[in-house]
Amino acid sequence: MRLLKDALASKVMLVLTFFPGLVVFLIIIGLYLRGRPILAEKPLFSLLFSSSWAPGRGDFGFFPFIMGTLWVTAVALIVAVPISLLASIYLSEYAPRAVQEFIRPMIDLLAGLPSVIYGVWGVLLIVPLVARIAPFFGGTSSGYSILAGGLVLAIMIFPTIIYVSLEVISSIPYELREASLSLGATKWETVKHVVLKKGLQGIIAAIVLGLSRALGETMAVLMVVGNIPKVPQSVFDGGYPLPALIANNYGEMMSVPLYDSALMLAAGVLLVIVLVFNVLARIILVRVERRAG
Amino acid sequence: MEQKPHIRIQDLSVFFGRQRALKNITIDIPDKKITVIIGPSGCGKTTLLKCLNRLVEPLDGVKVSGKIFVDEEDIYDPKVEVTHIRKKMGLLSQKPQVLPMSIYDNVAYGPRLHGQKNKKKLGQIVEHYLQMAKLWEEVKDRLSEPASRLSVGQQQRLCLARGLAVEPEIILGDEPTSALDPQSSQNVEKRLIELKNDYTVIVVTHILRQAKRIADYIAFLYMGELIEHGPAEGVFANPKDPRTRAYLTGEIS
């Protein structure tokens, strides 16, 4: 009887483990089936690289949305990565224990806030701020822009990157730092040459986690990014990332032909972008691993 | 002691929080000899060793009182630069800690930090110290490989070469053979004995036979106190304190 239970438990767990993988697969199939009608009418290339978006006239060009997604994500990473890395280095290497104990729960809290709160905060603070500083860079902006979206996103992915890289850095044995220090290296030299190098793999993984979150984040970005279906020319322009496109329009497509199919395809494109970045990250990780031995 | 001591420790106490790890240690460590610190685990041997190059820093609840003079310079004096102190000492830890870089870069790491930029000179330094650690023959054809691919015994000799390359005066060993197989251990012991011609060597160990093989001078620590110290033959043949005797005969360990 006990053996039977044991065998059963392992089978059940096996099935449950495969479940998430199965879901990914189902999503891909679903998106493909629903996106097929538009692919049947228009070549994929023109869908991906045309900038004209006028569903009423039957024009579905995803290029502005793809660029919107990439721009917002790039801004978010450029802002978030250096700050989060320095923060986690400070917390693990320099901060007195009291500071660590004070900051850590705050980071956890930041990670748990619903994204709509970030969105509201972005509208109240970041958007006006961007509108205010745009003239200094020789432009004008309503504030609802790529920059605002990127900044809000950056703040949202801080906790992820800080948390994971902090874990990675603190798992490096103290004796390794001592080895470097005992050769007369300063603390900063030790961090730069030894700690960061040793933790590089984990830090890349942390950045990829942040990146994935940034690519997919919908609500907070949608609220501050402007939602203008044009390819942005500068960070002060409005943009329209893919998640925002889908969330804004799905359910309000009326009976425009192919609109529904187009949005499904947009979701598919987003999925592919996320996949591509994940695979790239995997490749980089393998490289790093090989070099580190 | 007829010779001038290299290191003088005066009334050193260390607290971790409320716990006292070292109690009023006073000892002179002779120049160009192997001093072995023995004692049961948790007696403060490693703490004492780490105080010598200030890896024990008064921070986060750690308190250090007393004085340590290296070449008559008080190393815990706030005016003294800590990197200057550490550069004087090479450290061998329990488990060899190779830096996450190539074999070559591991040895060149210290000299580079201290300003050696000349490629040719660096190459000479790397070869010289790898020779000295008797590792050169085994690695000369694969200097650019990650150091982590070496065996543990080779890694420990690499750590020795790396430590020597910053031209220290003192070699500190924290149970440097505890992770090694007997052959590699013997290899490291031999290197240490050769090194005492030019360096002051201080080794922490809990292996009594190792202490007997290499020690010129012995310090016995017990529960954070320095119980007995003196020339090795004397302490081994004729321990004065009953606790030392108990430790040497294996009654406490």
Short description:
The complex is a heterodimer of chains A (293) and B (253). Chain A is mainly alpha-helical and 293 residues long. Helices cover 76% and strands 1% of the residues of chain A.
Report on the structure:
Chain A is an all-alpha fold. Chain A contains twelve helices and two strands. In chain A, α3 packs parallel to α6 (146-170) and α3 runs antiparallel to α9. Chain A is globular. The N and C termini of chain A lie far apart (48 Å). Helix content of chain B is 36%, strand content 26%. Chain B has helices spanning 45-52, 82-87, 103-113, 119-132, 136-139, 152-164, 182-195, 208-214, 232-237, 242-248, and strands at residues 5-16, 19-30, 34-38, 62-70, 73-74, 89-92, 170-174, 200-204, 217-222, 225-231. In chain B, β1 and β2 (19-30) form a beta hairpin. Chain B starts with a strand and ends in a 5-residue tail after the last helix. The mean pLDDT of chain B is 90. In chain B, α3 (103-113) packs parallel to α6 and α4 packs across α6. The longest helix of chain B has 14 residues, at 119-132. Chain A binds chain B through residues 96-97, 173, 175-176, 178-186, 189, 193-194, 197-198, 291-293, and chain B through 50, 53, 55, 59-61, 83-84, 86-87, 89-91, 93-95, 97-101, 109-110, 113-114, 145-149, 159, 162-163, 166, 172.
